[in-house]
Structure formats: C-alpha cells, structure tokens
Design brief:
By secondary structure, the protein is an alpha+beta fold. It has two domains: about 160 residues, Ribosomal Protein S5, domain 2 (2-Layer Sandwich), CATH 3.30.230; about 130 residues, Alpha-Beta Plaits, CATH 3.30.70. Helix content is about 45%, strand content about 20%. Strands 1, 2, 3, 4 and 5 form a five-stranded antiparallel β-sheet that branches. Strands 7-8-6-9 form a four-stranded antiparallel β-sheet. β7 and β8 form a beta hairpin. The relative contact order is 0.16.
Length: about 300
C-alpha cells in the first residue's frame, strides 16, 4: 500500500491576524509534498529524519489528545525501529508547512479514528485543529494547528475567527490568465518562534494594537472576501493597503533582500507583496494583474507561480 502524500500549505491571507481573530485563507500547495516511507536508512537525510521521528514519538507519548482520538504510539515506535522516515521536499523555515505535513502524515497513519476530508463535519474540523495544535507544539512552542489541518484536508480552508473554520471553494485557476499569485524566494530561511515573539512585543503597545484591529484586520478580511468572489478591483485596492501597512508595521519580519522590491511594487502598482507565514525569511507572496510585467521587474529573484487568474 502506498502511503498518502501530504502537500505543503500557503497562508494567502491572515498571517499574524489570525492570532487576533482576523479571517484567514489557507490553501494547499502541491509543488511540495511529503510522505512516510521505510528504508534501510542508507542516506544521511533518511538517518536524520528517522532520528527526529524517534524524539518526536517520545514527545507524542506524553500528550493527552483532546476528544476521542488516540495515536498508536507503540506501532509508530515499532515502525521507526524498522526504518521509518519522512520523505519530503518541503523546505524548512520557508512558511509553507514542513512540520504541518509531517504531523498530518503521522495522524493519518496512527490515529485510531479515520476521517474523510470530503465528509468531515465543521465540528470535527474544530476538534482536529485542536489536536493538531497539541501535536505541532513540539516544533513551534505554540501552534494553532492550522498548518497540519490544511495538509491533512488538502482543501482550501477559510478561517472565520478563532472558533470557526470551514472548507471553501476558491475561484478556478485560469492557466491562460494574465494575473498571478506567486512566491518569491528571499534566499534565507526564517524561524517562526522569534518572529512571533517580535509580534507579541509589538502587541504590548496600544498604538500597534489599535492599527492592527482597525486597519490590518479590515484590509485582510476585505481581501479574502473580494478574492473568493473574484472581484478583482476591490481586491487589489485592499491588497495595496495591506502591503503598505505591512511595509510600515512589519519591517522586522520582511527580509532585507526584499525591502526595495516591496516598496517598488507599491510605488509602481505593478505588483504587491505580503508575508507568507511568519516572515523573517523563506518565501514572500506576490500578487499582480500582469505577471509578465512583474516578472521583468523582479528579475534576479527566484519566483514560482502558484495560481493564475
């Protein structure tokens, strides 16, 4: 039996805002994926992965998962002894859910209860998110559980607020479309922990809390609403505001290599950039009505188109 593949994820909207109850829109990204496999552990990568799984299994053994879910840790540990490793091309520290895919793969294989993403209820989605938050806390200290949930479901998810989330349909990908959502490689890896620390420090000041609530969350939610309706004029209008806001308030999270092109996009209106995940490195998200034009302006940077419209 082939083990299922678990894809990476991309937070299109809602990074940091979801901590403060904004909406979020997260989609799977099939270019990167991972799966659990057995091998003789001949390569360094396989050995390292197997060793990490051993340590992770010890951590999972200490958890009491909420609800009726149980993980068969004994079977997991036995498989690790027999050469289990996580075969993944998902880059770490790039904001695309490397630990999320691993958590989803382990849950799928060792959970006592099997769920079908197509028929899962809204209530079970909430339970799963809580379970995944516990399981992923090993990697980030604190986790919302959102990354593993997206990787597990392999469907776009709309986070309505801290309590509610649901499956959602995004507009069809138009392979011939001029417009695009794309990733830019900043060339350095980012670490989630320190970036979230910076955010919480900023949240201690009243001015930042106020602008977060009154501006960031408003623009963010308006972008999601317009994107889902494929209403591109209000979408780009709010996206520009969001990009300007991030440039002013999320400076520490924007990799230095990206400062100038971020500003260039705002000034020229040729494209707009935003963080992909917590920032600090990894990927940056770009949106443009004319990808050919944006691509020329961003020559020298490695880019990947993830969606056309």
């Amino acid at each position: 039996m082939t083990n299922p593949l678990f894809y990476a994820k991309i937070i299109l909207f809602g990074e940091y805002g979801m901590i403060e109850n904004s909406q979020g829109l997260v989609v799977p990204y099939s270019f990167y994926k991972g799966t659990l496999k057995f091998s003789e552990l001949a390569s360094e990568f396989e050995k390292k992965s197997n060793h990490h799984l051993q340590k992770y299994a010890d951590f999972l053994a200490t958890l009491n998962l909420p609800g009726n879910f149980k993980l068969n840790i004994d079977a997991f540990k036995k498989d690790i002894e027999e050469g289990l490793f996580f075969d993944s091309n998902i880059p770490q520290g790039y904001g695309v859910g490397s630990s999320g895919a691993l958590v989803a793969a382990i849950f799928e294989k060792y959970s006592s209860e099997k769920l079908s993403p197509d028929t899962i209820s809204k209530d079970n989605l909430k339970k799963l998110k809580a379970i995944f938050g516990e399981m992923e806390s090993y990697f980030h200290g604190k986790s919302s559980g959102m990354d593993p949930l997206i990787c597990y479901m392999n469907l776009p998810i709309l986070i309505e607020n801290k309590e509610n989330l649901d499956k959602v349909a995004i507009p069809d990908h138009a392979s011939e479309g001029k417009g695009a959502v794309f990733l830019i490689d900043s060339g350095i890896t980012g670490e989630t922990g320190p970036m979230i620390q910076i955010f919480f420090e900023k949240m201690k000041t009243e001015g930042f809390r106020k602008t977060m609530k009154e501006e960031f969350i408003r623009y963010n939610n308006a972008c999601i609403e317009a994107f889902l309706k494929k209403d591109m004029n209000p979408f780009f209008k709010n996206l520009k505001k969001l990009s300007v806001w991030a440039y002013d308030h999320f400076k520490p999270m924007i990799p230095e290599s990206i400062y100038n092109i971020w500003k260039k996009g705002i000034d020229s209106n040729a494209y707009y950039l935003k963080l992909c995940g917590s920032g600090g490195g990894g990927y940056i998200l770009g949106f443009t009505k004319d990808y050919e034009k944006a691509e020329k302006m961003l020559s020298g940077f490695q880019k990947e188109v993830i969606y056309r419209f």
